[in-house]
Amino acid sequence: MSEHESNWRYATEQVAEPDAIARARAHSLELGVTPVSPAVGAQSAVLAAASGALNLVEIGTGAGVSGLWLLHGAPRGVLTTIDAEPEHLAAARRVFADAKIPPARARLITGRAADVLPRMNESAYDIVLVDADADHVLDYVEHALRLVRVGGTVLVPRVLHHGRVADPAQRDAVTAAYRTLIAETRESDAVLSSLSIVGEGLLQITKITE
Description:
With 210 residues, the chain is α/β, with parallel strands linked by helices. The protein is built from 8 helices and 7 strands, in the order αααβαβαβαβαβαββ. A 7-stranded mixed beta sheet has the order 3-2-1-4-5-7-6, sandwiched between helices. Helix 2 (19-31) packs antiparallel against helix 5.
Protein backbone atom coordinates (compact mmCIF):
# COMPACT_ATOMS: atom_id res chain seq x y z
CA MET A 1 0.00 0.00 0.00
CA SER A 2 1.38 3.43 -0.97
CA GLU A 3 1.88 6.28 1.50
CA HIS A 4 -1.00 8.12 -0.16
CA GLU A 5 -3.33 5.14 0.20
CA SER A 6 -2.30 4.66 3.83
CA ASN A 7 -3.00 8.31 4.64
CA TRP A 8 -6.36 8.17 2.84
CA ARG A 9 -7.40 5.04 4.73
CA TYR A 10 -6.22 6.40 8.08
CA ALA A 11 -8.08 9.70 7.61
CA THR A 12 -11.20 7.89 6.43
CA GLU A 13 -11.20 5.64 9.50
CA GLN A 14 -10.85 8.48 12.02
CA VAL A 15 -14.54 9.39 12.12
CA ALA A 16 -16.68 8.69 15.18
CA GLU A 17 -20.18 8.56 13.75
CA PRO A 18 -22.98 9.44 16.22
CA ASP A 19 -25.24 6.50 17.03
CA ALA A 20 -28.32 8.02 15.38
CA ILE A 21 -26.41 8.56 12.14
CA ALA A 22 -24.97 5.05 12.27
CA ARG A 23 -28.50 3.66 12.60
CA ALA A 24 -29.65 5.84 9.71
CA ARG A 25 -26.74 4.54 7.62
CA ALA A 26 -27.72 0.93 8.30
CA HIS A 27 -31.33 1.66 7.35
CA SER A 28 -30.21 3.47 4.21
CA LEU A 29 -28.20 0.48 3.06
CA GLU A 30 -31.17 -1.79 3.75
CA LEU A 31 -33.20 0.38 1.37
CA GLY A 32 -30.49 0.16 -1.28
CA VAL A 33 -29.61 3.85 -0.94
CA THR A 34 -25.88 4.59 -0.76
CA PRO A 35 -25.32 7.35 1.82
CA VAL A 36 -22.37 9.71 1.99
CA SER A 37 -19.41 8.20 3.80
CA PRO A 38 -18.74 9.03 7.45
CA ALA A 39 -15.68 11.03 6.35
CA VAL A 40 -17.68 13.23 3.97
CA GLY A 41 -20.48 13.54 6.52
CA ALA A 42 -18.03 14.70 9.17
CA GLN A 43 -16.49 17.26 6.80
CA SER A 44 -19.94 18.60 6.00
CA ALA A 45 -20.73 18.91 9.70
CA VAL A 46 -17.48 20.77 10.38
CA LEU A 47 -18.20 23.23 7.57
CA ALA A 48 -21.74 23.78 8.88
CA ALA A 49 -20.37 24.39 12.37
CA ALA A 50 -17.54 26.67 11.21
CA SER A 51 -19.93 28.85 9.23
CA GLY A 52 -22.53 29.01 11.99
CA ALA A 53 -25.06 27.76 9.45
CA LEU A 54 -28.71 28.44 10.19
CA ASN A 55 -30.35 27.81 6.83
CA LEU A 56 -29.38 24.69 4.90
CA VAL A 57 -30.60 23.00 1.74
CA GLU A 58 -30.02 19.44 0.64
CA ILE A 59 -30.65 18.38 -2.96
CA GLY A 60 -31.15 14.64 -2.68
CA THR A 61 -32.38 13.44 0.72
CA GLY A 62 -31.59 9.76 0.44
CA ALA A 63 -32.53 8.15 3.74
CA GLY A 64 -31.42 11.11 5.83
CA VAL A 65 -27.74 10.40 6.57
CA SER A 66 -26.26 13.55 5.03
CA GLY A 67 -29.08 15.65 6.47
CA LEU A 68 -28.32 14.36 9.97
CA TRP A 69 -24.65 15.20 9.52
CA LEU A 70 -25.50 18.75 8.45
CA LEU A 71 -27.82 19.24 11.42
CA HIS A 72 -25.19 17.70 13.71
CA GLY A 73 -22.90 20.55 12.72
CA ALA A 74 -25.66 23.16 12.81
CA PRO A 75 -27.52 22.55 16.09
CA ARG A 76 -29.63 25.68 15.59
CA GLY A 77 -30.01 25.20 11.85
CA VAL A 78 -33.08 24.44 9.76
CA LEU A 79 -32.72 21.98 6.88
CA THR A 80 -34.79 22.01 3.70
CA THR A 81 -34.26 18.70 1.93
CA ILE A 82 -35.61 17.78 -1.51
CA ASP A 83 -36.12 14.36 -3.06
CA ALA A 84 -38.32 12.97 -5.80
CA GLU A 85 -38.73 9.61 -4.03
CA PRO A 86 -41.48 9.55 -1.36
CA GLU A 87 -39.99 6.34 0.09
CA HIS A 88 -36.69 8.10 0.71
CA LEU A 89 -38.38 11.03 2.40
CA ALA A 90 -40.43 8.71 4.59
CA ALA A 91 -37.22 6.96 5.68
CA ALA A 92 -35.55 10.31 6.36
CA ARG A 93 -38.51 11.47 8.42
CA ARG A 94 -38.17 8.35 10.59
CA VAL A 95 -34.43 8.76 11.13
CA PHE A 96 -34.83 12.46 11.96
CA ALA A 97 -37.41 11.51 14.57
CA ASP A 98 -35.09 8.79 15.91
CA ALA A 99 -32.34 11.42 16.24
CA LYS A 100 -34.74 13.71 18.15
CA ILE A 101 -34.69 16.37 15.42
CA PRO A 102 -37.80 18.55 15.94
CA PRO A 103 -40.07 18.64 12.85
CA ALA A 104 -39.59 22.41 12.64
CA ARG A 105 -35.88 21.88 11.94
CA ALA A 106 -36.33 19.53 8.97
CA ARG A 107 -38.53 20.58 6.08
CA LEU A 108 -38.96 17.67 3.65
CA ILE A 109 -40.12 18.47 0.10
CA THR A 110 -41.26 15.82 -2.35
CA GLY A 111 -40.50 16.82 -5.91
CA ARG A 112 -37.97 17.05 -8.69
CA ALA A 113 -35.15 19.40 -7.78
CA ALA A 114 -35.40 21.03 -11.20
CA ASP A 115 -38.97 22.07 -10.35
CA VAL A 116 -38.42 23.04 -6.70
CA LEU A 117 -35.13 24.97 -6.84
CA PRO A 118 -36.26 27.82 -9.13
CA ARG A 119 -38.94 28.72 -6.57
CA MET A 120 -36.50 29.07 -3.67
CA ASN A 121 -35.15 32.41 -2.47
CA GLU A 122 -31.85 33.67 -3.81
CA SER A 123 -28.91 34.35 -1.46
CA ALA A 124 -30.92 33.03 1.48
CA TYR A 125 -28.96 29.96 2.57
CA ASP A 126 -25.67 29.24 4.32
CA ILE A 127 -25.00 25.77 2.92
CA VAL A 128 -26.42 23.79 0.00
CA LEU A 129 -25.42 20.14 -0.36
CA VAL A 130 -25.85 18.67 -3.85
CA ASP A 131 -26.24 14.88 -3.81
CA ALA A 132 -28.86 14.11 -6.42
CA ASP A 133 -28.94 12.83 -9.99
CA ALA A 134 -25.31 13.13 -11.13
CA ASP A 135 -26.41 13.61 -14.74
CA HIS A 136 -27.67 17.06 -13.75
CA VAL A 137 -24.93 18.07 -11.31
CA LEU A 138 -23.93 21.18 -13.29
CA ASP A 139 -27.51 22.48 -13.30
CA TYR A 140 -27.96 21.73 -9.60
CA VAL A 141 -24.73 23.48 -8.63
CA GLU A 142 -25.74 26.51 -10.68
CA HIS A 143 -29.00 26.65 -8.71
CA ALA A 144 -27.13 26.07 -5.46
CA LEU A 145 -24.79 29.01 -6.08
CA ARG A 146 -27.80 31.19 -6.67
CA LEU A 147 -29.33 30.07 -3.37
CA VAL A 148 -26.32 30.57 -1.10
CA ARG A 149 -25.45 33.97 0.34
CA VAL A 150 -22.04 35.53 -0.17
CA GLY A 151 -19.85 33.56 2.23
CA GLY A 152 -22.11 30.53 1.89
CA THR A 153 -20.86 27.17 0.67
CA VAL A 154 -22.03 24.58 -1.83
CA LEU A 155 -20.96 21.00 -1.06
CA VAL A 156 -20.78 18.31 -3.75
CA PRO A 157 -20.00 14.79 -2.48
CA ARG A 158 -19.05 11.85 -4.74
CA VAL A 159 -17.28 14.27 -7.07
CA LEU A 160 -14.39 11.87 -7.70
CA HIS A 161 -16.91 9.42 -9.19
CA HIS A 162 -15.28 6.20 -7.95
CA GLY A 163 -11.84 7.26 -9.20
CA ARG A 164 -13.06 7.88 -12.74
CA VAL A 165 -12.51 11.65 -12.69
CA ALA A 166 -8.78 11.21 -12.10
CA ASP A 167 -8.48 8.68 -14.93
CA PRO A 168 -8.12 10.47 -18.30
CA ALA A 169 -9.26 7.33 -20.10
CA GLN A 170 -12.74 7.68 -18.57
CA ARG A 171 -14.92 9.91 -20.75
CA ASP A 172 -18.53 9.09 -19.88
CA ALA A 173 -20.97 11.97 -19.50
CA VAL A 174 -21.08 12.01 -15.68
CA THR A 175 -17.30 11.89 -15.34
CA ALA A 176 -17.00 14.71 -17.87
CA ALA A 177 -19.58 16.76 -15.95
CA TYR A 178 -17.66 16.41 -12.68
CA ARG A 179 -14.40 17.38 -14.42
CA THR A 180 -16.12 20.42 -15.91
CA LEU A 181 -17.51 21.40 -12.51
CA ILE A 182 -14.10 21.14 -10.83
CA ALA A 183 -12.41 23.12 -13.60
CA GLU A 184 -15.05 25.85 -13.78
CA THR A 185 -15.11 26.44 -10.04
CA ARG A 186 -11.30 26.49 -9.92
CA GLU A 187 -11.20 29.20 -12.61
CA SER A 188 -14.12 31.32 -11.38
CA ASP A 189 -13.50 34.67 -9.70
CA ALA A 190 -16.88 34.44 -7.95
CA VAL A 191 -16.02 31.46 -5.74
CA LEU A 192 -13.26 29.77 -3.80
CA SER A 193 -13.13 26.01 -4.14
CA SER A 194 -11.32 23.10 -2.54
CA LEU A 195 -11.39 19.41 -3.43
CA SER A 196 -11.08 16.90 -0.59
CA ILE A 197 -10.18 13.33 -1.52
CA VAL A 198 -11.19 11.75 1.80
CA GLY A 199 -14.09 9.33 1.53
CA GLU A 200 -15.66 9.50 -1.92
CA GLY A 201 -14.46 13.07 -2.42
CA LEU A 202 -16.07 16.39 -1.52
CA LEU A 203 -15.94 19.56 -3.59
CA GLN A 204 -16.37 22.66 -1.42
CA ILE A 205 -17.37 25.86 -3.22
CA THR A 206 -17.66 29.09 -1.23
CA LYS A 207 -19.34 32.06 -2.88
CA ILE A 208 -17.29 35.25 -2.45
CA THR A 209 -19.23 37.63 -4.71
CA GLU A 210 -22.60 37.89 -6.41
